[in-house]
Amino acid sequence: MSTPTTRPTADAAREAVQAAVRHVVPDADFDYVDDDTPLRGEFELDSLDFLGFAETLASRTGVPIAEADYPRLATMATCVAFLTGARDGT
Amino acid sequence: MTATMVKTTYREALREAIREALQRDERVFLMGEDVGAYGGCFGVSLGLLEDFGPERIRDTPLSESAFVGAGIGAAIGGLRPIVEVMTVNFSLLALDQIMNTAASLQHMSGGQYAVPLVIRMTTGAGRQLAAQHSHSLEGWYAHIPGLRIVTPATLEDARGMLWTALEDPDPVLVFEHGSLYNLAGEIAADAGPVDLDHAAVRRPGDDLTLITYGGTLGRTLEAAEELAGAGVSAEVVDLRTLRPLDDATYLGSVTRTHRAVIVDEGWRSGSLSAELSARITEQAFYDLDAPVERVCTEEVPIPYAQHLEEEALPQVRDIVAAAHRTLGEQP
Amino acid sequence: MAARRRTPAKADPAAEHERELLRTMLRIRRFEEACAELYSATKIRGFLHLYVGEEAVATGVMSVLEPDDAVVSTYREHGHALARGVPMDALMAEMFGRQTGCSRGRGGSMHLFHADTRFVGGNAIVGGGLPLAVGLGLADHLAGRPRVTACFFGEGAAAEGEFHESLNLAALWHLPVLFVCENNRYAMGTSLAHEHARTDIALRASSYGMAAWAVDGMDVRAVEESARQAVEAIRHGGGPHFLEVRTYRFRAHSMYDPDRYRPKAEVAEEKTHDPVTALAELMTSEGRLTDRQLATLEKEVAAEIAAAVEHAEQAPLEPVEDLTRFVHSDRTPAEVT
Amino acid sequence: MSDFTMPSLGADMERGTVLEWLVAPGDVVHKGDPMAVVDTSKAAVEVETFADGVVVDLVVRVGSEVPVGTVLAHLGPVGAAAPAPAPEPAPEPEPTPEPAEVAAQEPAATTGHQPVVHSPLARRRARELGVDLASVAGTGPGGEITREDVEAAAPAAPPTPSTVPEAAPATTPAARGAGRPRVTPYARKLAREMGVDPAAVTPHDGETVRASDVRAAAIAAPAPAAQAPPPPAPPPGAPPPTGAPRPTAAATRAQTMRETIARLMARSKREIPHYYLTTTVDLTDALAWMREQNAGLPIAERLVPAALLLRATALATARHPALNGFWVDDAFVPGSGVHLGVAVSLRGGGLVAPAIHDADRLTVTETMAAMRDLVTRARAGRLRGSEMADPTLTVTNLGEQGVESVYGVIYPPQVALVGFGRVVERPWSVDGLLGVRPLTTLTLAADHRATDGFTGGRFLATIDDLLQHPEEL
After folding, report:
1. What is the DSSP string of C227-295?
2. Do D347 and A25 touch (CB under 8 A)?
3. Using the beta-carbon criterion (under 8 Å), do B257 and D386 form an inter-chain contact?
């Protein structure tokens, strides 16, 4: 995985999160999911699903995701913040 | 295990087996059309005449019935003949001796006359030899009680089956598929006799069982490889001995995989594949998760033209398609 | 020849020998007559091919063979088996399909085998025994044993490919085989002239480069003399020999045969050359056989047959559990020689 | 005095007809003389006498057919017979009268209520159409009921709605059972063993119920008491009927699966005397080790806790074979390997528990890969038959769904089920000090017929112990 030179925009990050969820839950419906809904609970992601979700997310955005980062992928809001590098970007 | 490996071919392995037999037992001799001066129609006995002389590497006239019968008589008379019938097609001229005499003598004499005879012959199609030189009749011979039918498909079996066959007190027919003679590979330098009682699992698998022997083993293994690419794990069973059939091995496999595809170069009707299918149905019916599939030769005298011959014979794609059918899938 | 008792004999060995020939022919004749009756009474089943009229052939040829020699026969082989010395009890038990039969009840009339006397069977495929005999000869040839294999077949076999293949092979390899063609003039119901463009079988055999001649098969002494010459030549490296023995079968081909294909007058005429009575009359006229001796002989033969029938009636059946025994050999390779 | 009888001239001859007498009473005959001409139905044969004597009388007339062994004539001793010049002349050999062979035609009428139906096709159509054959009048030969008769007797509309086009040729699989899928023998056997009604199983190819379909229907949550993923509503947009098993007619499918679970679990609770054991496992070291392994690994290769739990269970199972296998016919049959059934929830409802084969021989990484592969394929409907068929012990990880412990119902004929609860952080005493530790509750439901609590206890202790030394996994 190459080191990203650019971070996704918030919209791109949001889109990537949705795509990554749909990768494991093809019919996932985001219409009723607000930014603070826990994704694992909402979409019944088990640990393997979550692994697939994280994997897709990383490959789509180019943002490396360490195991320690998993807690930051809890909701749409935290995901977007993490991916766009709100605080600790490089 | 640090067995030294040597390069060999199916043809050379057969020749070494004959040579070893001639050396080990002075009662052994080879007899058949053009086995001596010519070196064997397929070159198997090339050079043996020079080493063993014309009494033991014995050319015969074109009299299949007489020299096969003479082999039977010589076996009763205390020798251990290896009779080469050039091809299975010509063996029909000796069918009376093979069936009415060799196979029957032991029983109809109430056990007084065993016939320790080995008859070798080439079988099979695939070389554009047309209808009269392309038969696969080993399954037909496997119909006959009193005979043992073996079909070496590997270098080890080509090297090892002959001696075990000679040790058998009853007639053994060895069918060598014509497409195998040039098969090359490595074999242990000390490779020797092999057992004739068991089928061999040539490739383990879980999803279905491909049952074959002789000339179609190679294609069946290819098919298994292709299936693996599609996520299907196919077990390949090489029957090795067509009579008596080692039921335990292939039925055990089918009982585990629940699906069977039989690949047999013989014609379908009244064939060995039919026998296998029947036995599977008789003995493993409640373990079948799909109807037994058979991949056989089209019911036609084998035509000369290459594309027609290819179409007539079992091909990898046919095996793969049959395998998928047992899985209830489109290939 | 187990059940045989010696008739009181003068010191004339030739006469004694003739009486033995007569005894053998009588044993065959009476045995087969008994078989016909037992067949009609359903004690014997399957096909029953009788040798009545042809007894001199088997008797004459077997007389000159050694115990080590081998005999390959046809499906009309009761006479061959008896003359070769297969015990009558074992033969009759086989006709009855019993365990003590010479083929344990698996062969019947057409497949009598007896390894002890190297009687390699009744072969019921016309011509099928010839290649086998060639192979037995080949084994002796390769092993350097001075043995002879006598191979019997009818003139019908001369139309089979195996006949020609085998004669050629035996001559080509110079094998110790005596081919005995029992020419009884009918291949089942087809007469010689209907079947062969060239009816002189011996002549055809000689074309393969082996000594071949014809002999009167109704005269046991002529058959014996011819066979003696042939066997001696073979045993001394003379290669295969061929005897065409001209004979006649007095009865139909098998029990079921209405015998429509040959004139009754012909049969009647041939019966006047009955080899059994011919020898008996000759010996009587020349003073080597008394009526009393003949009567004794008949009585002894009748007793032997009665005992054989009695044995067969009492003999056990092979247990059905052993049905598939002998499909493959019970023996290890070392035990098969 | 002796009898001259009808001889048997061949194995197939049971009777013979006297065509002609060649002798007359008073004639002296000798052994071997022909007595009569007999028609064996194959040929006319002269038959001989096996005895000498004088013909006393002829018992059977010319033209008579009699069984083998019947006395045809009597013979007396030579010289004993009266001269009897030509008494009662033997009947003239006249042509055999034609036997009165008017083979009575079978009456065509059928008797009573017994329908004459030999045609499997007619029988099948009757079954398909719900026609009572006893009520059908046959128009075929001998009153035979034909397919047309059955169809004419059928109600106007087929009793079961069928999507099969009428014109489908009889050879197409779709036409075989009027919409009712075929069931393979193995699937049938499996269904019986698992208490599943094969008729209620939906085949994934829309045509043939195979073992995998039965498994899919039967292997529901091994712990239905605790397992309660609410059957979700059918997903929008019905998928094509031949697609993956997952979303086909979800409501029906969920219903079927529900019924199967009901039957199977009822059987389990009816037949299996369960005992339950539970223990709490400290996962501190295991998770730390896992994080260490995962550090620097691409996401695709990282481990999840379930892989460690499975691995530990597999190793423990290999060491306690009494829990690994089946209770069949009142006896324990050990499994041929450690094939761990892994409960996988299907999106759209239901669970399957396919096997990881020989799980005890896999490393943690391989276990992880096998689990990922299995779950992916389970949800794509691409499980292999063998995976569906032969788990020897099932593991459920309902902790993923948030519960703290699961007391499962054993999936028959297996004899044990292992459950892992959620990993929770709790106060925990270690070496006399209190700390906060990640814990999971490990449970065992086991068949008391196969093992006792002592065995089960040691088994759980082994899993616990293994998880304390993750580097040895």
Report:
1. HHHHHHHIIIII--EEEEEE---SS-SSTT----SS-HHHHHHHHTT-HHHHHHHHHHHTTS--HHHHH
2. yes
3. yes
- Say which of D32, D43, D50 has its CB closest to residue C258: D43
> Which CATH code, of 3.40.50.920, 3.30.420.40, 3.40.50.1970, 3.90.1150.10, is assigned to B200-326?
3.40.50.920
Band of the pLDDT at D157, cuts 50, 70, 90?
very low
**Domain-located, residue C77:** yes
Instruction: For domain D272-472, give the CATH number.
Output: 3.30.559.10
Say how far apart CA C168 and CA C162 lie, in whole Å. 10
Tokens encoding D369: 């890969």
List all residues 6 or more positions away from B287 whose beta carbon is below 8 Å from its beta carbon. B254, B255, B258, D185, D186, D189
Nearest beta carbon to residue D11 from set C40, C46, C259: C46
CA pair distance D207, D198, nearest whole angstrom: 13
**Who contacts B104 (Cβ-Cβ below 8 Å, separation ≥6)?**
B146
Domain positions in chain D: 2-95+168-227, 272-472
Residue in the structure block whose two tokens are 């192979």: C135
Smallest CA–CA distance, residue C102 to chain B, in Å, is 7
Give residue C288's domain range.
Answer: 19-315
Token pair in block for residue D182: 């075929």
Min Cα distance D289 → chain A (Å) is 13
Residues of C in contact with D7 (CB under 8 A): 39-41
Question: Given this model, what pLDDT does residue D412 score?
Answer: 85
Which of D409, D411, D413 lies closest to D227 in space, CA to CA? D409
Query: Are residues D299 and A27, on separate chains, in Cβ contact within 8 Å?
Result: no
Domain boundaries defined on chain A: 10-26+37-84
CATH number of the domain to which C154 belongs: 3.40.50.970
* Closest C-alpha among C121, C125, C120, C102 to residue C111: C121
Q: Yes or no: say if C59 and C220 are a contact pair by the CB < 8 Å rule.
A: yes
Mean pLDDT of B109-135: 95
Is any Cβ of chain C less than 8 angstroms from the Cβ of B171? no
From residue D174, alpha-carbon distances to B196, D360, D426 in Å are: 45, 43, 58
- Has domain B5-188 been given CATH number 3.40.50.970? yes
Burial C139-170 (b: 16+ CB within 10 A, else e): bbbbeeeebbbbbbbbbbbbebebbbbbbbbb
Q: Is B16 a catalytic residue?
A: no
- Of D207, D212, D384, Cβ closest to residue B206: D384
pTM of the model: 0.65
Mean pLDDT (chain D, rounded): 76
Q: Which of B147-156, C143-152, D322-331, D461-470 has the lowest mean pLDDT?
A: D322-331
SS3 percent helix, strand, coil of chain D, rounded to 5, is 30, 20, 45
Nearest to B106 by CA among C325, C204, D78, D348: C325
| pLDDT tens digits, one per residue of D29-69 | 998 888 998 887 777 888 889 889 999 999 999 988 999 99
How confident is the model over D440-452, as pLDDT tens digits? 999 999 999 999 9
- Which chains have at least 3 CB atom pairs separated by less than 8 Å from chain A? D
Q: What angle do CA D229, D231, D234 make, to 5 degrees?
A: 140
Closest CA to D42 of D68, D86, D9: D9
Question: Under a CB-based contact definition with an 8 Å cutoff, are residues D59 and D73 in contact?
Answer: yes
Q: Please report which confidence band the pLDDT of residue D313 belongs to, taking 50, 70 and 90 as the band edges.
A: very high
C-alpha B2/C-alpha C157 separation (Å) is 60
Count of domains for chain C: 1
Residue-range domain boundaries for chain B: 5-188, 200-326
ipTM reported for the complex, 2 dp: 0.60
CATH classification number, D2-95+168-227, choose in 3.40.50.360, 2.40.50.100, 3.40.109.10, 2.30.130.10: 2.40.50.100
**Residues from chain B contacting residue D207 (CB–CB below 8 Å):** 328
